[in-house]
Amino acid sequence: MSRSSSGRPAHGPLLVPVAELRRRVGNVDEVEGAVALDGAEVLGTRLADGAEATVALRLEALSDAVVITGEAEAPWEGECRRCLEPVSGMTIGDIDEVARTMPLDGELAIEDDRIDLTEAVRAAVVLALPMAPLCSDDCMGPDPEAYPVTVEDKADDDEAPPPDPRWAALSELHPDE
Q1: What's the pLDDT tens digit per position in 107-120?
Q2: How far apart are CA 28 and CA 67, in angstroms?
Q3: Which distant-in-sequence residues (6+ apart) come within 8 Å of 87 by Cβ?
Q4: Is the entire prediction scored with pTM above 0.85?
Q5: How far apart (Å, rounded) are the C-alpha atoms in residues 171 and 59?
Q6: Is the pLDDT of residue 95 over 90?
Q7: Please, are residues 135 and 87 in contact by the beta-carbon 8 Å criterion?
Q8: Exposure winner among 39, 41, 75, 172, fewest CB in 10 A?
Q9: Under a CB-based contact definition with an 8 Å cutoff, are residues 16 and 31 in contact?
Q10: Which has the closest alpha carbon to 14: 123, 124, 120?
Q11: What are the Cα distances from residue 66, in Å, to 86, 120, 155, 156?
C-alpha cells in the first residue's frame, strides 16, 4: 500500500486520496508506492514477470485540477538485438499528468476525491522500455563458431555468371541492327 508524505494510506496500489490536498491551491503532497504491471511488452522487450513498478510522485493542487509529476521504475527483460542473448535492466518512465473532476481528453479523473494512477504509470513505463536493447555496447553479434556463415566458392572471378533463363528471349533481340 502506498503512503503519502503526510502519512495517509492510499486505498489501492496507486489509488491516491486528494481531498486534503485540494483544500487549498498550491498544496503539495509526495507519494511513493508500487503497482504490479504484468503483460506490458514493446517489440520483444517486456516487463519482467511479476514485476512491480515503484513510483515517486509529486502532486500539486491547482484551482480546478491536480498536477502529478514524477518517475516510475520497473525491471524489464528481452533479447539483445545483435546476439539474441537474454538481457535485462531497469527502465525509468517520466510521469506528467493532470487530473480533474471533469477531465478533458487525455487527463485523469478525480473520482470520490481519489486518483487512480495505475494506467498513467503503465503508460510511462511502457514508453520508456528500450526498443532494441544491447547486452553490452561492444556486442559483436552472434558467435561465428556457433552460427557459421557459408559462402559459395567461385571457381573464377573472371567468369560471368550464367544468364537467367527467364531473360533468355531478350538475348535474341538486337535493337541496334
Answers
A1: 999 999 899 998 89
A2: 10
A3: 77, 78, 79, 80, 133, 134, 135
A4: no
A5: 77
A6: yes
A7: yes
A8: 172
A9: yes
A10: 120
A11: 41, 14, 75, 75
3-state secondary structure of 49: coil
Taking 3-state DSSP, the helix, strand and coil percentages for the chain, each rounded to the nearest 5, stand at: 10, 35, 50
Distance of CA 177 to the CA centre of its chain: 65
What does the alpha-carbon distance between residue 21 and residue 63 come to, in Å, rounded to a whole number? 11
pLDDT attached to residue 65? 92
Give the angle 101-107-113 at the CA atoms, nearest 5°.
30
CA distances from 19 to 10, 27, 72 (A): 12, 11, 23
Higher per-residue pLDDT: 21 or 7:
21
Q: pLDDT at residue 10 above 60?
A: no
Question: Are β-strands 45-47 and 41-42 bridged in parallel, bridged antiparallel, or unpaired?
Answer: antiparallel
The three cell numbers locating residue 109: 479523473
